[in-house]
Amino acid sequence: MSQYQNDLNAVMQLCQQNGSGWNAINPEYAARMKAQNRFKTGLEIAKYTAAIMRQDMQDYDADSSQYTQSLGCWHGFIGQQKMLAVKKHQGSTNKKYLYLSGWMVAALRSEFGPLPDQSMHEKTSVPALIEELYTFLRQADAKELGELFQALDSAKASGQDTTEIQAKIDNYETHVVPIIADIDAGFGNEEATYLLAKKMIEAGACCIQIENQVSDAKQCGHQDGKVTVPHEDFLAKINAVRYAFLELGVDDGVIVARTDSLGAGLTQKIPVSTSEGDLASQYNAFLDTTEINSVDELKDGDLALRQDGKLVKPIRLPNGLFKFKDNTGFDRVVLDCVTSLQNGADLLWIETEKPHVGQIGAMVDEIRKTVPNAKLVYNNSPSFNWTLNFRQQVFDSWLEQGKDVSDYNRADLMQVKYDDSQLAQEADEKVRTFQADAAREAGIFHHLITLPTYHTAALSTDNLAKGYFGDEGMLAYVKGVQRQELRQGLACVKHQAMAGSNLGDDHKEYFSGEQALKAAGEDNTMNQFDVAS
């Protein structure tokens, strides 16, 4: 028996037990409302979606073609429309998530106005967005189920077979999916990280991504000036997130440990080594130093370390930060990743400067020598010039193979004149298959785009404004937006229904019966869209 039928039977019993005082309660309506509000709390969502992620991770370990994907979102409506689109076009939300981008929270959701990705926004805006996203996803469930219930009532009224409609209700697939939520560098010390992680989990987050940058000097992963923390500091924050999950009963919560070491050449402090070869010692071995032959060479305020039997002075910048040796990023990334996985993290995030399967795969191969099932969450970042990167990769490959590249200028491959060239076509095919290739060859379990809808909102608005305020006038909206919504079957063309007017009408009828004043009558202009597209 389905949950819907169980709920219906349970409410029927309640009505019988409570006698005539409950005569106005329709058990079927109550069961419908329960079905339309399957998840009562954020913790229910976190537990439900954590189990999904854990199963997906197992599926990927068995078959790398079973990778997962998400798109970044900055508003509940955007997340809702994404999952509606996924269900419409893919038939299922299976292995499709949402990503909560700290960059977009900073740029679009801060009360300070647009901010750079430097952890300056209100940290409370992160759990607030998680809650908002799940509110909109649950509303999508309520809307679609409401339409199924209306279809069920119509079928019953006309004496039609209701088996198929009832099966859709009983086996309804929710729009609620896992969210990978960005906690930046933890917004403070490990206690601050724990407190924020709890709020995020209570809002519904089953997966929290945390990075090894200094919290008060955090930079976007694709900008300069990144400063990392010693492993001990980072592991304390991983522990803090795990304790938050355990305290709230989400025992299988997922932690993504992000390393920015590939692009970070600085550290804020030198950790204290207590035994030879410990983590602090390994971290300090990457410091850029100069050998000291005599204590007299040290000036007031200088620091010195003993390394490999020698006295050395770490290179210290005027701002007090310490510099790593050049060309150590690869090795630091590997150490970061192995250490994180050995100390409580479940997944890795390696922030790179370009989308190159070979580069990512080389690091993962090295990590897997120690942790064989290591796997990544990877940022398919809009900060990369994907067109130029992949055209240059093809150019380099052709050059290595001895192919004639005389028709191409490597530095200018972004030019429009190359768009229809053989090289550009091959590059586009590599972009198309990048996620599958990287999942197979570079251990990437989850592919995401951090801030795609920041760009899609800007692009679509630009196109509309260009025509609307130009010669096209109203045709710019009608032809470019509304007609496309109709032709492509977007539910949002009926924006009143999308915003909940039909749900409200249903509830009014439940509560008031025939006295209900409903919005969906003959004079509702949304009826104009009930035509073949």
From TrEMBL:
Which GO terms are recorded in the biological process aspect for this UniProt protein? carboxylic acid metabolic process
A Pfam family for this UniProt protein? Answer: ICL
Q: Which reaction does this chain catalyze? A: D-threo-isocitrate = glyoxylate + succinate
A single GO molecular-function term is: metal ion binding
Q: Which InterPro entries match?
A: ICL/PEPM, Isocitrate_lyase, Pyrv/PenolPyrv_kinase-like_dom, Pyrv_kinase-like_dom_sf
According to the lineage, what is the superkingdom?
Bacteria
Record's cofactor remark: Can also use Mn(2+) ion.
CDD domains in alphabetical order = ICL_PEPM
Q: Which cofactor does it need?
A: Mg(2+)
Q: What is this protein called?
A: Isocitrate lyase
Q: Which residues are responsible for catalysis?
A: C220 (proton acceptor)
The UniProt keyword set, sorted, is: Lyase, Magnesium, Metal-binding
Indicate the transmembrane segments per the record.
Answer: none
Q: Where does Mg(2+) bind?
A: D182
